[in-house]
Amino acid sequence: MVSVERFVVDKAIDFAWRYRLRSNDAVHLASAVLTRCDHFFSWNKKDFPMGEQVEGVRVSEPYVIGQQSIW
Prior knowledge:
13% strand; alpha+beta; single chain; elongated; PIN-like_dom_sf
């Protein structure tokens, strides 16, 4: 969990303008960047820059390693 401090808000404002993100999406991405996450996963292909790195954080869709089976 990340506390939304001023530095998170400032970064979120930058991302909201740069990537045309809604405020909640921008805060999530800013939090990932500022906590130095390796990956940021989202199903939201419409808004997030999928496949790109944003200040060292790889943005991509969630995925499962290996084969899944329901049985």
